[in-house]
Amino acid sequence: MERSVGHTDTLAVAIVSTYPPRACGIATFSRDLAAALRAAGVRTRVVGMNEEAAGYTYEPEVAWQIHDNAPEEYRAVADALNHSDVDVVNLQHEFGIFGGEWGEYVLELVERLDRPLVTTLHTVLPNPPARARRIVRALSRRSSCVVVMSPSALSLMEERYGVARNRLRVIWHGVPEIEWVPRERAKERLGLGGRQVLSTFGLVNAGKGIEDVLDALPSVATAFPDVLYLILGETHPNVRRREGESYRNMLLDRVRTLGLGGHVRFENRYMADSELIAYLQVTDIYLTPYHNPDQIVSGTLSWALAAGCAIVSTPYRYAQDVLADDRGVLVPFRSPSAIASAVRNLLASAERRQSMGQRAYRFARQMLWPSVGSRYAALFEEVAGRRAVEMAG
Question: Which DSSP string do the residues of 278-345 spell out, in sequence order?
Fold first, then answer.
């Protein structure tokens, strides 16, 4: 029998992704997506992606696990999904969470799968190596629909990968509802009264460009002696395995060399959502000084929009999409002087910070998880309905 969009009480979706307690932005995204789908009436199960040697103590919704470098486990889970009550499989794709060159082992799963597949792309490279392009095109061919998170990604999928627009869908990165509170009151709660607060959060790695903000800070601190830059988050686990804490240690050395001890604070841990929200509520200016111009989505920038922060960012693709219409200030890549100028100008005008933050806050309403979850639920219903029609025919 054909399904009706909106009647999601019997729909079952399996999400293939990293998942908490693994420290990973996509894991957090998938946890929040699963919760939003359940709120929309969808039954969810999860295929948890593990590093080769790692295992996690998961919540009961994780029904299956795959170790990234074990091709036989991808095939075994595909067989299990084929014999389950799952109606649709949603693959959260990022090259680095699957095994093989450019994560090619993911194809072991999708090519054996007989259930409808919807792939959500967290990275869309404009000029990928041949193998990476082959993997994305294979996923797109196998998928009933491919979800991207920005208009820029939609254009790239059409132009660089040859995927027809009618098989693509833009659904923004989901964000939590963050209460708009007076920043000074929020600062008092965290013992930051009287400080002008800048922040960057997320898993720390060299591509974050944090050193550019540190190099900008002496100029800012001269004009605004109460400025404080919060660097929130632990080193990315994959970076820590490969390189130890070399990048963080370089940042700490830079703080000492520049005499910024009173103006920089590190919180070197993976934070609960409630903590991150509390820090965003005290943030006068949020910074994403990232170095990669092709970054197609940023969960941290999405959260900063939802918190109504004034934002200074380099012009990577996602930032260009979401910070248009004066929702933020874009500065050149690797330019501490431009960062310093933008931050000083914003700190000098509370009125401009507030109006910019209000525009960001209003824009992010469409990104709230209840809205995003409903859009995914409707898409999964559509895909499952098409399959039901095909099987009946």
Answer: HHHHH-SEEEE--S-TT----HHHHHHHHTT-EEEE---HHHHHHTTTTTSEE--TT-HHHHHHHHHH
CA-wise closest residue to 74 among 97, 58, 54, 56: 97
| Nearest alpha-carbon partner for 206 in 132, 95, 283, 289 | 289
The whole-angstrom separation of Cα 93 and Cα 323 is 25
Q: Name the token pair of 248.
A: 């963080």
Cβ-proximal residues to 382 (8 Å cutoff; 6+ apart), any chain: 5, 145
pLDDT tens per residue, range 192-233? 999 999 999 998 988 899 999 999 999 999 999 999 999 999
Q: Do residues 316 and 188 lie in contact, with contact meaning Cβ atoms separated by under 8 Å?
A: no
What is the helix, strand, coil percentage profile of the chain, to 5?
Answer: 45, 15, 35
How is residue 324 written in tokens? 């248009």
Helix, strand, or coil (residue 237): helix
Joined tokens for residue 382: 């559509």
85-127 pLDDT per residue, tens: 999 999 999 999 999 999 999 999 999 999 999 999 999 999 9
Whole-Å CA distances, 32 to 7, 182, 335, 368, 370: 21, 27, 35, 11, 10
Are 223 and 340 in contact by the 8 Å Cβ rule? The answer is no
- Angle at 57 (CA atoms; ends 52, 63), nearest 5 degrees: 85
Q: Give this prediction's pTM.
A: 0.92
State how far the Cα of 12 lies from the Cα of 66, in Å rounded to an integer.
20
The β-bridge relationship of strands 285-288 and 264-267 is unpaired
